[in-house]
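call fold(seq) -> tokens
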Amino acid sequence: MIIQKRTFYFFSLFLLLFFSQLNYAQEQKTAKKENRGRLFNDTTATDSDYLMAIEKAGEVLESAYNDIDFAGDTRHLFGDMKRTESKLDLILASLKGANPNVRNQQMYRIVLQEIQQELEEQNKAINDRNLNLENIKKRVIDLRKDKTLITLLKDTIRRKQFQKEFGNLRRRYVATDSLMTKNQTTLNNKKRLTVQRKISVSNALATVESKLEKSGISIFKKEYPSLWQINDTAAKKRVTHNIKAKIIIEENVAAYYLSYKAGGLITLCFFMGLLFWYISRNIKYLKTNGYAENLLLLNFKYLNRGALLPVLVIALNIAVVTNLYAPALFLELIQLFLLGVLIFLFKNQWSGVAMRNWLFLLGLFFALCFLDLFITIGLLQRFAFVAINILGIRYGLVQIKTLKEELYIKGFFKWASIIFIGLNVLSILYNLFGRVSLSNMLSLTAFISLTQIVALSVLLKIILEIILLQIYTTRVKRGIEKMFDYESLSDTLKRPFIIVISYMWLIVIASNLNIWESLRSSLTKLLSHPNTIGSITFTLGNIVLFFIIIWAAHLLQKYVAYFFGEIDDENEENINKRQHSKLLITRLVVLISGYLLAVAASGMPLDKLSILLGALGVGVGLGLQNIVNNFVSGIILIFDKPIQVGDVVEISSESGRIKSMGLRTTKINAPNGAEIIIPNGNLLSQNITNWTYTDNFKLVEITFEINGETIPEEINTTVNETLANLPLVNNSKPSQIYYSSISDGKYKLLIKFWCSIYRTEETISSARQELYVSFKNKGLTFSS
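ret:
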């Protein structure tokens, strides 16, 4: 109808332009009579006016032709429509031939929803282009309002004068009309295909939702006959053919998903490559500098065997969690590959019994995946599933204990064992009573939950080993070779990671049980529901996010020191004060950024925030002066640097070494072992004696007497040689020798020399002993 209407308009214009002859002679006679009396009236249009009118009409037709022609964005739209069609055909073919497992159905649902959105956008784009063609058509029709052009058309004599121009105009019109017909037909065909595809997607989504519903725990009606009521009607000769057909389908779906997620997978590989380089560089540095044996002292279980396998374990665990809606073949291949990598990591680490039990578990898991993907649901598959479930229950009761003793996390393994046994029992019951899809889903979830907790336990241990390697490498580069208490440090570091590991495990289980999406949507609805108290509106999600960010900021500022190689028992003589200052600034930036981000995430309006800041200002004025004073003083100490971590100071009646500096207080280790906590405000308001402001050396002195036949020159030589042989004495600065009394055979001396302020007493004691031995060897009496 649209095409007919458009053709009518163009045809009418064409008749108007080239065949308008009605009443022309009568009009000419009337015009001559009128013109006789209008000799001095306005003249008619000139040839120039007619040429301009023809040129204007030609420009309109030319621009209409250019606008009608499909541009690059339209051709890109047609390319997108072809790709959408290919995806839809693949999904529809897979729906007909693949086994109705939960993983594939979840992936189908996600892809179909995306295709549905794409079709809506494509349909809107086609409508916009159709509307654009209608607007172009109106521009051409508006040429009939040009009075100069209409006058020329009615004048037979003058029209012949512009015959060539009218011929060009006619050719432009024919070309525009032809292109309009062609493009509008193309758009109408594309729109018809889009509507048909939308119907196909709606039907496919209904089918997928139905299959997912059948595998849901909440549905109790029979899906298949009970196990004792069926016969396997599939011909044996067709089993091989069916397996090949299903393999092709699963391969096509997995290949599509791989191309669909190629960007994310490449990004993951890139970051894992950086991690591999980082670990290898640290290990190579330690081995090159003769610290390879010290790595054994850190009790590494996985990094001692190279960086490739640990990095693969990290990458595959991330791939499992970030591809929750991947097709079954893709995800189960990743799972099997991950478990295969663990075999090489466990080799020569686990006992023979534990290793055999692990391999047996992998064999059951492989058989389960093969049955679920490639064997049509029937008597054979159902009996095979029951057999695997029975073996799984026996494994959970008897053999699983050998795995627990080899794992880093043993607490979660108890829950994994209970879930494993319980899901296998439920799978047998559902299989017996005809709930085959649900039974298969529970079986796969049981084995995935058990194997995944093993993989996540290894993942946690690898992460801790990477952090310990970083700490030790940084300390070695700073010249600190002392081994630290890695076990207690690991226990401290693993706590936040256990939360992350638990979250990953629960996501995998919920996704395989087909309840993650509903849980996530319910939780999202709960957290995003607006609540109003007085004039303030907030959501529970904003509050939770606020506290999570605050917790993460405090955790990060606490643990950031470990990445600089800083721990509590480090050698005080090798403290890098500049690094400590950078660390304090980093902590300050992390805390401030965390609080600002938390406030922004809370969604608190600025007007309400200004009221809160005003109330806070009143609080500062009334009772928080000291807290704010200490906080500001801490910032001043960080940037002004009158004292730094590791300095030996005297403040009022207290003295000791600066252990740590915070935003509110500073901790000092006293010589007697006490820890003195001083508010930062007090530090700035008192005189501070900093013994290590420029260096870590202190001038010390020893007084003694020498009795015997000698001269001062020999005494001076003996003292200088003795002090030069003491490693604790700083010989870069010359020692000073003073005589307070000289008599025959009796000399009183005062010696001053430089040594490390951290080992003053030890150096003085060593100097006395060595001087005593040196003078005694010369037959002189030494007393101090």
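Residues 215 and 438 are 4 Å apart (CA to CA).
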